[in-house]
Amino acid sequence: MKYQIKNEKFDQINSDASVIFVFNKNLKHKWVDKNALKNLNFKGEAESSVLVSEGLQVYAGCASLDDEELRLAAAKAYSLLKTSKAKTAKIGLYLGRDGFSSIKALVEGFELGSYEFTRYKSKYEKPSLKSIIISTESYNNKNLSQAELKKAIDMGLVFAKSTNLAKDIINTPPQDFTPLEMAKEAKKLEKIKDVSCKVYDEKFLEKEGMGAFLAVNRASVLPPRLIHLSYKPKNAKKRIIFVGKGLTYDSGGLSLKPSSAMVTMKSDKGGAAAVIGIIKGVSELKLPFEVHGIIGATENMIGGDAYKPDDVLRARNKKTIEVQNTDAEGRLVLCDCLDYAQDFKPDLLIDLATLTGACVVALGEYTTGILGVNEKLQQDFFKVSQKSGELTTPLYSNRYLNKAVKSQIADVCNIANTRYGGSITAGVFLSNFIRDEYKDKWLHLDIAGPAFVEKTWGYNQFGASGAGVRMNLNYLLNLTKDKKWA
Ligand code: BES
Ligand code: ZN
Ligand code: ZN
Q1: Interior/surface letters 63-81, b for 16+ CB within 10 angstroms, e for the rest
Q2: Which of 122, 383, 394, 455 lies at 20 to 30 Å from 323 by C-alpha?
Q3: Residue 335 — very low, low, confident or very high, per pLDDT cuts 50/70/90?
Q4: Separation of alpha carbons 180 and 199, rounded Å
Q5: Does the reported pTM lie above 0.85?
Q6: What integer pLDDT is reported at residue 238 of this predicted model?
Q7: Looking at residues 422-446, what average pLDDT do you find?
Q8: Which of 356, 361, 413, 454 to mutate for ligand 1's pocket (most ligand atoms within 8 Å of CB)?
Q9: What is the mean pLDDT of residues 22-34?
Q10: Exposure string over 98-121, b if 16+ CB within 10 A, otherwise e
Q11: How far apart, in whole angstroms, are the C-alpha atoms of residue 59 and residue 52?
């Protein structure tokens, strides 16, 4: 979609369709055609919208001027215009206190709402709508220059397109999106300035002593890959490392998943996909940090060669791990990747993973769990993430849960000795692989709930949502305003 800002009155702009956002159910605004709405039961409620076929007018309700309301309303408006023949639509928009972020949010709403995964559809008719014209009539903030308005559009596009790239990766089925394909996809980012990508094979994993990662891969006919993306702009003062769980398929291994739980497990590469989206985003935004993305890509399969419950593995950091459940494989891949990541001395270390069903049970399918050992960092991340449009909640451990992954025969066990608090105990397992000097700099984001959408919500269609991309881009963008970081 193309976005254009016009310094003209809304009524004077020529377009095939028009979009009017109704705030606080205020149907008295001059842009509202009261006659046209007369026989339609539209009250301007949040998340409601209506299409007046005469003149192709769309009305979309917003509860407030908050960014998320704008994203939701833009996506709603798009879904109504999608089946029309309109090529251009104009939009009248009141700006919130922060006009820049309103425009960014509007673009995000249209781009996220118009995403479709069509690769496997034999017949697909592209929607006609190609261009959105934004009228500046209602701008009361004269401080916003044309250049800034344009920057807001570009930033919205970067946030949304990085998210949509993650969706494409996750939605692609496991027979086509293999660990090798993941490496190819990551390599594509090398065309962006200051981005490079190294791909390591199983020999490297052996040399590095990544016994946990390798065990998960053993029964797969596809080789694993460790993918290391880096974005190194000149004069960067801080180093941020993201680590992503890249299970291109999780069958559960010998602790096989029931068939209904196996469907959607192509989304177990959601952490890796988010890491690729984040590197795309930070490099396109040209953020002033050195940012790395480390991905452990493999399948978790069954076979005569499969790793087993009762096996004891040796991780890269030399700790031994008793396996009691081969379906708790994500933490085994992550623990070796996290250990590798710490060799690069991060100032901030964040892993993203579709790690536990327990997180979905605890928080619902919309929310990411923020785990770690530094509660202040968890809270900071939570506060900033609230502006991103993604839902998050911090989850804290305690002295009792901290003891739950002890093993009778090895240093740690890959599952907890309690049925409860499974997302927290998975975090506790990972914390065993975080060196003391990085404990305070580490966050673990469990995106098992929002990574894959089974029932449409907000501007998320069925399929992947690209969870984790926007909250992290927003967090890093926010750090650029922090004297300690920039
Ligand atoms: N990939 C799953 C977690 C998952 C579940 C993601 C549902 C998305 C939706 C993970 O590898 C897993 O199977 N975890 C087990 C851990 C258990 C054996 C301790 C789980 O959550 O059941
Ligand atoms: Zn699993
Ligand atoms: Zn998994």
Answers
A1: bebbbbbbbbbbbbbbbbb
A2: 394
A3: very high
A4: 9
A5: yes
A6: 97
A7: 98
A8: 356
A9: 89
A10: bbbbbbbbbbbbbbbbbbebeeee
A11: 8
